[in-house]
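Final report, Chapter 2: Outcomes

The project's central promise was a pipeline that accepts a single protein chain and returns its three-dimensional structure in a standardized token representation, suitable for archiving and comparison. That pipeline is now operational. To close this chapter, we reproduce one record exactly as it appears in the project archive, with the input sequence first and the structure output second.
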Amino acid sequence: MGRLETVFSDGGKPAFIGFTVAGDPDKNMSVRVARALIAGGTDILELGIPFSDPVADGPMIQKADERALGAGVTPSAVFDIVREIRTESNVPIVFLTYYNIVYHRGIEQFYREAHDAGVDGILIADMPVEESYKTGEMLNTLERALAARDGRTRKDDVLYDIYFEKEDAGGRKYIRQDLEKAKSHYYQLMGWDVKTGIPTRPTLEKLGLKDVADGLEKKGR
């Protein structure tokens, strides 16, 4: 059982997730902040990786990113921070990051480094759903390779999941689906052909793109 699974294995007990931007205001101080969060009872430590355009975050986190970047903190420095925390704590660590950081470093390289540093989960705030399928398949393959390398066994074949947010009379819910079901679900929500992932004629016409629909039909798509 992994560190994250262990946290949530205690029935319906809620978990406290403490957040800080790695490297804010500098590398050494951010390690001290992380230690303080853990000592204060954090069940899961979430570390934001500083990014120049954190559009999914509010002004407070944006300013923290600016301070960390100003202090010269890079993704490599963030991995160092995780390794330092890991020398004295087994609390699950999750990254909050942006896809540009992952893509620029190399998807497989980024995840391999995160795994080896001791990261338990990665939240990519701005990853397009369409990109997530390819990335998810790559991660499934990588996780199996890492599990074999580390002498671990996996009970399930589907290691990568997608969560859809749904709000109804009962409140906000998150629906967990495996890769293929999630892809089909997303295409249906978008009004795209489930098999091809191409917008249907009614969808294109609603967007004022009748000429595009005509062009696709001429090409037999």
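Archive annotation: The first strand starts at residue 17 and ends at 21.
This record, like all others produced under the grant, will remain available to the consortium after the project formally closes.
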